[in-house]
Amino acid sequence: MQELEFRMTQQPINTKKMYWIFQLIGWSLFFVFYAGVAAYFNDYQWQIIVGYLNTVIVGFILTHIYRSYIKKYEWEKVGIFKLSGRVILASILLGIIWSAIVLPINNTFFYVESDQEFTFAIAVIIVLNLSIVAAGWSILYFLFKFFINLKSSEIEKWRLEAAVKDAELIALKSQINPHFLFNCLNNIRSLVIENPEKSRDMIGHLSDLLRYSIQFNNREKVSIEQELDVVQNYLNLESIQFEDRLKYSLEIKPETLDLKVPPMAIQLLVENAIKHGISNLPDGGEINIKSYLSDDNLIVEVINSGQINNDKKGTGIGLKNASDRLRLLFGKISNLEINNLNENQVKASFKIPLI
């Protein structure tokens, strides 16, 4: 997800700007190389250099017009064989038009005396050479377009992936909140008649939890410190119901307090520990919440009294959603794990890469 977020910050490719950059650089290099070679074998006569400059300028203009024609008739969408035929014919036509423009100008204004007489055969060779140059330009242009289309497709794919991720996260959050509220409201309902004072305390804790949910659950990530506030509210809420049967402790390394986790991720582990562990023990039990750094990873552990019953399938939709949210936000490396730590304890943990 982090890689996806980085990719989404990239700006769309400016194909028009890139086209002009490559057009200018390509023709400049063509002029420097061929004019330099030709001038070297002709004692660096200025007519040769200017004649090549004229040839390059005309080629620059003709290929730009050629590009407009390609775009107008959408050559990029035709098959490779049809495109090849069009490029060959267009290159020959460009070579003929190009020669018809530059030869009279060069022979009139930039003529260089030579022992070799200008003949029809030489004219054909010039047309052929310029046609090859036009064909080379065409190949480079369509390779450029292929690359740009490929990158554009990748960007669009990233955008679609991001939209799917957002939709999945919203759906998961909408499942977590009702599940959490259902448990809290059941607890309050059981105490409204028996102990109104305690029920008022529970409503106060629930109010704090709802405030947190409204403020932070629409975010992808919150700090460990913020998440622990809601966890302690939840534990205080449950402590009223379990009384002395529920004990908890926190072992939070100070350097982890500002690090980010998905909202309700730790709270759901604690809720699962109570629902599937503590509540099943006649004498209750203890929950220990830890966070620390290891090998450039944030490690979060929730250790509770109890044992995993391997005969039961799963441990609740809330826990599954917590795992899915971690996976969506941080990738497979953050997958949540739950296993029996020893004969009396269960450990739920996840790790999040710092980089």
UniProtKB/TrEMBL annotation:
Q: Which GO terms describe its cellular component?
A: membrane
Task: Write down the SUPFAM superfamilies for this protein, in alphabetical order.
Answer: ATPase domain of HSP90 chaperone/DNA topoisomerase II/histidine kinase
Record-annotated Signal transduction histidine kinase internal region domain positions:
167-246
- Which domain of life does this protein belong to? Bacteria
Q: DNA-binding: present as a keyword of the record?
A: no
Q: Which Gene3D superfamilies match?
A: Histidine kinase-like ATPase, C-terminal domain (3.30.565.10)
Looking at the UniProt entry, the stretches that span the membrane are 20-40, 46-66, 87-106, 118-144
Q: Which UniProt keywords apply?
A: Kinase, Membrane, Transferase, Transmembrane, Transmembrane helix
Task: List, in alphabetical order, the Gene Ontology terms for molecular function in this entry.
Answer: phosphorelay sensor kinase activity
Q: Any idea what this protein is called?
A: Histidine kinase
Organism annotation: Fulvivirga lutea
